[in-house]
Amino acid sequence: MDPDEALDRALTRQLYRFACPEPHVLGELHLGVLEEGREQVEAHVRNCPRCQEELAALERFLRTRDQPDLRVLVAQWVPQLQVAEPAPAYAVRGTVQLASATYQAGEFTLSVSITEDPQNPSLRTVAGIVSGEAEPGGQARARLVGPTYHEEEAVDTVGQFAFDRVPAGRYTLEVELEDALVQVSPLEVA
Ligand SMILES: [Zn+2]
After folding, report:
1. 44 CA → ligand 1 middle, Å
2. What is each CA distance from 93 to 7, 25, 99, 150, in whole angstroms?
3. Ligand 1 geometric centre to CA of 119 (Å)
4. Digit-coded pLDDT (tens) for 175-186
5. What is the value of pTM for the model shown?
6. What CATH number does the domain located at 71-189 have?
7. Closest-CA residue to 14 (of 50, 55, 42, 43)
8. What gap in Å lies between CA 149 and CA 182, rounded to an integer?
9. What is the residue extent of each domain of the chain?
10. Predicted confidence band at 145 (pLDDT cuts at 50, 70, 90)?
11. Among 80, 112, 157, 158, which one is most buried in terms of CB atoms within 10 A?
12. pLDDT in tens, 74-101
């Protein structure tokens, strides 16, 4: 890259930073479920190196396009419904529970709790439990994707998973089951 081109790209990056869509909007664009303002977001991404990088990171972690049979279920928050608490192994005694929420997606119910990370009070533990018609098999995976944090964890045989040392921010949470992908976006970790 010659110096002019490098400068040009740096300036473009600066210019576009202010207009960049929120991470969850890029997530919805990636999944093909973005409706509101989709054309503007697509136009922005075509010219914004920063968002192109963000989308490339999403591609690596949200690999839904590789499996055409996978049903993508966008989870809806269910107010005031607490159907399942994470088991004691995941809800460490003495930690402060900061938030919990339950979501419905097709036949699946997903409960998420956010607690202080026991090792570092400025970070969070995000634990969840998914339940549905079938028991989650050994292959189920959970992914938590945010601006500076991309992690994937196995879902255990009773549907539980947990992420440690999560910085505060706005995330996409996905649980990939045998033939379905349950997605929560945005998940606010405060
Ligand atoms: Zn952008």
Report:
1. 6
2. 52, 36, 16, 26
3. 34
4. 988 888 898 988
5. 0.63
6. 2.60.40
7. 50
8. 19
9. 3-61, 71-189
10. confident
11. 112
12. 888 877 655 555 554 454 455 567 788 8
